[in-house]
Amino acid sequence: MGSHQFTVGFSMSHGNHQVRIISGKWRGRKLQFPKGTNHQDLRPTTDRIRETVFNWIAPYVQDAVCLDAFAGSGALGWEALSRHAQHVHFVDASADVRDNLHAQQATLTAHEHSTIVLADAIKWLQQPASQRFDLVFLDPPFRLNTSAQTCLDALVEQQWLSPGALVYVEQDRNDACVDHVQLKRYRHQQAGQVQYTLFTLDRV
Predict the structure, then answer these.
(1) Is 156 exposed, middle or buried (0-12, 13-18, 19+ CB in 10 A)?
(2) CA separation for the pair 35, 50 (Å, rounded)
(3) pTM of this structure
């Protein structure tokens, strides 16, 4: 997930990168994504961070309606579906990423439980909500250092979140941690150049 500096820990094969699903019905499956996308700085969330985050949210993933904004490799969204989320909406501005997500969707036979949207995630979230999400993965490019806060504000103010929704935000460790008066910071950690935070409205 995310569109920034590529992080060591993902394998490359024939010019492609691979991301591994950690657990659930697709455990161990490796999904490819091309390194030659329009997003030259694509950086999926590492296995280590994904494992930590999904340990945090484990009781809440099953049957959740999810949003994977700035979807990139799709690592977080497919991990959620593997762990029996009800549906994941993937949003990304890159046509190359969109096409690759469609290929992954076909590989996993996941059409019924996933929707892929080609759109700028910031502008998409700044519209009045067309539905509510139980679980949101928000991992914008590190080089767009204001977009995480902008998206977090839009999620709340445009009413995209279900009561008790969880919001995961990944940022550069040097950026000020995002915040919102209506959200409670539930967990926060750092790993290498990354800081990551889990927020909740009222459920945890």
Answers:
(1) middle
(2) 20
(3) 0.87
Distances (CA, A) of 188 to 141, 158, 193, 198: 19, 25, 14, 6
Per residue, what are the HEC states of the chain?
CCCCCCCCCCCEECCEEEEECCCCCCCCCEEEEECCCCCCCCCCCCHHHHHHHHHHHHHHHCCCEEEEECCCCCHHHHHHHHCCCCEEEEEECCHHHHHHHHHHHHHCCCHHHEEEEECCHHHHHCCCCCCCEEEEEECCCCCCCCHHHHHHHHHHHCCCEEEEEEEEEEEECCCCCCCCCCCEEEEEEEECCEEEEEEECCCC
Residues 133-184 have pLDDT tens digits of 999 999 988 766 568 999 999 999 999 999 999 999 999 999 999 999 999 9
